[in-house]
């Protein structure tokens, strides 16, 4: 989402929650970024909560690395202190 102002284009680095439909827009973006992983049934996303559930430890770390890679590619970051 970008805004045009007299000085040029402005693209915020954080989401304005005061705007109408911002959470819905963010949810749609997260769904699009992780769609193929969500479709496997191993990843669930609710706004800024990404949950990874695998039946075994095999492949779990690779899945987490892939999610973090996609988030970084789209200028989204994870606060490690909020992760389990």
Briefly say what this structure is.
37% of the residues lie in helices and 17% in strands. By secondary structure, it is an alpha+beta fold.
Unreliable segments (pLDDT under 50, ≥5 consecutive)? none
Q: Kindly report how far apart the N and C termini lie.
A: 31 Å
**Contiguous helical run count:** 3
By DSSP, the count of extended strands is 4
- Overall, the morphology is elongated
Q: What's the main sheet like?
A: 2 strands, antiparallel
Task: Please state the structural category.
Answer: alpha+beta
Q: Rg to the nearest angstrom? A: 15 Å
- Strand proportion: 15-25%
SSE succession: EEHHEEH
Classify the oligomer: single chain
Please state how the strands of the largest beta sheet are arranged side by side: 1-2
Produce the secondary structure layout.
Layout: E1 3-5, E2 8-10, H1 22-33, H2 35-39, E3 43-46, E4 49-52, H3 60-73
Characteristic key phrases:
84 residues; alpha+beta; two-stranded antiparallel ribbon; two-stranded antiparallel sheet; 3 helices; 37% helix; 17% strand; elongated
């Amino acid at each position: 989402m970008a805004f045009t102002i007299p000085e040029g284009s402005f693209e915020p680095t954080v989401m304005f929650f005061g705007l109408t439909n911002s959470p819905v827009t963010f949810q749609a973006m997260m769904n699009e970024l992780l769609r193929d992983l969500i479709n496997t049934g191993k990843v669930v996303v609710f706004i800024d909560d990404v949950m990874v559930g695998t039946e075994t430890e095999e492949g779990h770390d690779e899945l987490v690395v892939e999610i973090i890679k996609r988030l970084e590619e789209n200028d989204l970051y994870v606060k490690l202190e909020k992760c389990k």
